[in-house]
Amino acid sequence: MKMKALYALLPFMLVSSACSAEALSDKVNAYFDAQKAVEHQHSKESDVTNLLMLFTPDATFEHPRFNAILSKEEYKAG
User: Fold this and answer.
1) What is the pLDDT of residue 44?
2) Cα 73 to Cα 52: distance, rounded to the nearest angstrom
3) Tens digit of pLDDT for each residue in 12-56?
4) What whole-number distance in Å separates Cα of residue 15 and Cα of residue 31?
5) Are 40 and 47 in contact (CB under 8 A)?
6) Of the candidates 24, 22, 75, 25, which has an alpha carbon nearest to the alpha carbon of residue 50?
7) CA 46 to CA 43: how far, in whole Å?
8) CA angle 50, 30, 62 (to 5 degrees)
9) Angle CA(53)–CA(56)–CA(57) in degrees, nearest 5?
10) Nearest to 37, CA basis, from 14, 53, 24, 22
11) Which is nearest to 70 in space by CA: 37, 50, 61?
């Protein structure tokens, strides 16, 4: 009986995984779009704000070339 229940739930689990993958893909694409806007020569403060909204409050940014680690506030001020 337990195996039948598992088989009955399998389609729902697969659909759930596909939806999660799509949601994750959307978030990744939003990040790359926001990052591209920030790196643009004519970027605005709102572009930086949009990028920072995608991260948790305690996120940090590392710039290995300059050996710098910045908080969100430092990144925004920079």
Assistant:
1) 92
2) 9
3) 555 555 567 777 888 888 989 998 998 888 999 999 999 999 989
4) 24
5) yes
6) 75
7) 8
8) 70
9) 90
10) 53
11) 61
pLDDT digits (tens, 9 = 90+) for 52-68: 999 899 999 888 888 98
Which amino acid belongs to residue 17?
Answer: S
For position 16, what pLDDT does the model report? 56
Give me 37's structure tokens: 């806007």
Residue type, 35: Q
Enter the tokens of residue 73: 């506030």
How far, in Å, CA of 1 to CA of 61, rounded? Answer: 51
Distance separating alpha carbons of residues 49 and 68, to the nearest angstrom: 20
